Amino acid sequence: MLTLDAEQTVGDFVRQKPTRARVFESLKIDYCCGGKISLSQACRKRGIEVGAVLQAIHQSDELADADTLVNVDTMGLAQLADHIETTHHAYLRDELPRLDAMTEKVARVHGDKDDRLPTVRQAFLILKTELEPHMMKEEMILFPIIRQLEASAERLDFHCGSVANPIRQMEREHDQSGAALALLNEFTDGYTPPEWACNTYRAMLDSLEKLEADMHQHIHKENNVLFPKAIELEQERG
Does the structure show a pLDDT above 70 at 42? Predict the structure, then answer.
């Protein structure tokens, strides 16, 4: 049995085996924005016994199907940037307008019955307002820099200085998105519908839950895989 190190970062656990994300999702351990802290620290924050989490990871590894999640750690930088755009950015461009309409309708129709719904609506709008320009900055500025960096054998001079500069800004924006997602989760009781909820309300919650799961994978792939590798490659170029 492979020995797991509780002092390894949460992000690295998922980076090595993407299927481990399901364990962390079920325990509400943040592996994307909070992926840079050790598993032992993450367990202390959540009040969870680290040994039980390590056992759950062992069981997940034994049951993992290699085809269920993409192993992004094996991808080149340009390939990973392409994957993020075609998978996660494309999903958001389809889903954000749909959820915009759904959250507006549910808050308008049921807000008098459930006073949390206007807060859900506002948290979603904050998230949407942050994500749309964020994706554009990645696609127009950061990802082209990363592709150029990988394609060149020499050190390049970028208008932003080091690739680490736009990366730091993207990570700050990821933290803001993570805070908005946490609010959505909190004010929907973990996306649990009340007994009286109509089909639109239930569909909205299901879509928000899927949005959160996709965003966790999205941010993890950038914060814990693409960005560190890009910084490391730039440093190797001297």
Answer: yes
